[in-house]
Design brief:
Blueprint (H helix, E strand, L loop, with lengths): L8 E3 L6 E3 L3 E6 L5 E4 L7 E6 L2 H9 L2 H6 L5 H10 L7
Antiparallel strand pairs: 1-2, 3-4, 3-5
């Protein structure tokens, strides 16, 4: 019988939902201090996870949880670019 690998679990900084790592979007602060979406999940730097919905990103930014998780202020133009990359319903 083949051995099954466990899928890593991560928590969305926006809503607090625990989900498989592959079901969330990783946002990374690179060693250079840039903030970007990490689609591979392997990029070097400090990461935070959000659900693939604009609402979760907006909650994470609005509450300051994303900035705390990345230990850097997230510029507004980066938030806009991230929001445009994420799907889902805008809850503003």
């Amino acid at each position: 019988m083949p051995k099954l690998r466990k899928t890593p679990q991560r928590t969305c900084v926006g809503c607090g939902k625990v989900a498989d790592k592959r079901d969330l979007v990783r946002i990374v602060r690179t060693p250079e201090g840039d903030v970007a979406v990490d689609l591979t999940g392997k990029r070097s730097g400090r990461g935070a996870y959000v659900c693939a919905e604009r609402g979760c990103l907006q909650r994470a930014v609005g509450s300051g949880k994303l900035a705390r998780a990345l230990e850097v202020e997230v510029p507004e133009d980066v938030v806009t670019a991230l929001s445009n990359r994420l799907g889902g319903v805008d809850e503003s």
